[in-house]
Amino acid sequence: IKRRGGDGVELPTMIAMADVSERLRLEADLRLALDRGEFELHYQPKFSLAGGTPELIGSEALLRWNHPERGLIPPAAFISVAEETGLIVPIGDWVLREALAAVKRWNAAADDAGPRPSVAVNLSFKQFDRPDFFEFVRDTLQEAKVDARLLELELTESIVMRNADSTVDVLRRLRALGVRLSIDDFGTGYSSLNLLKRLPVQCLKIDRSFMRDVTVSDEDAAIATAILGLAHTLGLEVVAEGVETEAQLLFLRARNCDAVQGYLLGRPMPETTFRSALDEAARR
Ligand code: C2E
Ligand code: CA
Ligand code: CA
Ligand code: CA
User: Which intervals hold domain EAL (predicted)?
Assistant: First the structure.
C-alpha cells in the first residue's frame, strides 16, 4: 500500500529525501569537525594471557567525535557516511598521526627494560584505494619517530577480499617495515582459508558476536574453539574482543587464546586515563 505525503510525494520518497539531506548535513559537519579538531581517540587496553594474570600490553585506538552540542558520538554513527564521501581518508590520516603521537608519549615514559605498549589502528577499505597508502604509513612512522613494531593495523576481511592482489602487495611491504597486521572481526566476513594462508598477517581478532554466548551456546563455543585451533595451526596469534565475564575469560584461557579485550578488563578510555593504567601496570 502506498501512502501519500502532504503534497502528493510518496512517503518512501519523502523519507529518502530526508535521509539525503540528513546525510548532506552530516557530511558538512564531518568536514568541519576535522578542521576544528573535534575528533579524539579513546584507547581500549589489550591484555596478554601468556602469564598467570592478564598483562597490559597495548591498546586499540577507537575514534570518537566530540560534538560541541551532542557530546561524544560513537563511530557507528558516522563511519559509513565518512566512507561513502571519502572523508574517511583524511580522518584516517588524522587517526594514524594521533595514535602514533600517543604511542610515542607512552614509550617515552616507559623505561627501556619495561614492556613497550603498542597501539592498534582500524583501517577502512577506502584507505587502500589510495595508491600511496604504504608510503603514507612509512612516512608517518618516520615523522613520528615511532618503531614500526609498536604499530598494529587492523584490517577487515572485506578490505582483503576487495582487490586481493594489490592489497596483499601493500600488506607485504608494511610487514617488511615491521608493522603488525591483524584481521579484525574474524569470522563475520567471507575470507577464504586460502587467502588467509597468503596474507602476511600475524593475528586474528575473534569478533565480539562469537564471544557473547560462547559460554552458553555450543555452536559459538565450537566456532571460537575452531578459530583458535586454525589460527594456532597456522602460527597466528588470536585476540578475543568483547570479553565481559570471568567465564568467557576462563573459556579463552583454557584454549590458549593469546590476548583479550573487553569491558571485563578495560573499556575504551581517554589517553590520560590509559596512561594512568600503564603507570599502574608498570608499578606491579
Ligand atoms: P571494532 O574494531 O570491532 O571495535 C570494537 C568495538 O567493540 C568498539 O566499539 C569497542 O568500544 C567495543 N567493545 C570493546 N569491548 C567491548 C565489550 O566487552 N562489550 C561490548 N559490548 N563492546 C565492546 P566502538 O568504539 O563503538 O567502535 C565501533 C567500530 O567502529 C569498530 O569496531 C571499528 O570497526 C570502527 N572504528 C572505530 N575507530 C575507527 C577508526 O579510527 N577508523 C575506522 N575506519 N574505523 C573505526
Ligand atoms: Ca578493531
Ligand atoms: Ca568487532
Ligand atoms: Ca571492525
Answer: 23-282
CA distances, 55 to each of 106, 115, 232, 284 (Å): 16, 10, 20, 10
pLDDT digits (tens, 9 = 90+) for 2-14: 455 555 666 666 6
CA of 176 to the centre of ligand 2 (A): 22
DSSP string, 137-181: HHHHHHHHT--GGGEEEEEEHHHHHTTHHHHHHHHHHHHHHT-EE
Helix (H/G/I), strand (E/B), else coil: 64:
strand
Does ligand 1 have an atom closer than 6 angstroms to the CB of 262? yes
Say how many residues make up the chain: 284
pTM for the structure as a whole: 0.93
DSSP one-letter string for 217-238: -HHHHHHHHHHHHHHHHTT-EE
